[in-house]
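Sample entry (315 residues):
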Amino acid sequence: MKFNSKWTRQHLIGIEELSREEINIILATAASFKQTMQRSNKKLPTLRGRSIVNFFMEPSTRTRMAFEVAAGNLSADVITITGNASSLVKGETIRDTAANIKALNADMIIMRHSSAGAPKYLSRVVDLPIINAGDGAHEHPTQALLDCYTLQENLKNIEGRKITILGDILFSRVARSNIWALKKLGAQVTVAGPATLVPKEFTQFGVEVCHDLRKALEDADAVMLLRIQHERQNATHFPSIGEYTRMFGLNKERASWLKPDAIIMHPGPINRGVEIDSQLADSDRSVILQQVTNGIAVRMAVIYLCMNASLQSIK
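Predicted structure, serialized as tokens:
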């Protein structure tokens, strides 16, 4: 694949800082890589001899595995470091851990951390490309990119489409990244859920805030469900899980309020019977597993573009 010279970023820290053109470069590159994933031999020699470190200080299954597969498909060597297995538990700073990773001749760090801003900080103190795999309640850029890619595959065009994000907006980095991405691509975004989890302040993002579920779902081209982020909450924001499901859980009746060809999305992990009925999660309208597959292609694109921009800067 020919490197896109219009892409000059060595890091991917967040969607907020990207232009519409840069988002489209990633999506177009991902489309090219997805074609290669259909082959019997999925490996490309693109990054042979390069080493990528997955530096995951928070639990992860889908994101970590998708980055591992993506890097492997590009023929890079991949090392994964988790919080319990790192020297951080002995008191070492993130900066020193990253410096040691670089000293071991790594070419890129993919980082997930519970503190918002940790990947940004690392990009300033370590001379390596840094990819944000989720930082606290701040951003999760590659999730938003794979969601946009999935929307493009199913809706063809995101411009002017009504996309409803339903659930825990307040504590969700996925929601923030998706709002930035979808707005830049011209979508009409509605955020919905309990008032305690979807405060009116989100109108500052240029989205519609709605606490009436029927109104939020009516005429939507896609609904993006989010789980309740218990690990980031320090107080109860609704009476009970059962109450949340009764008021805002997506079931067959509520799904009928969507457009007939609307799709159902979820970044995972799914809490079946809470934010979505199992029947809907496994239905033809669900693109949840398609999102997982697309996550590999999108992360291949991000790794490829940022790595090549880094190498170009050295020349």
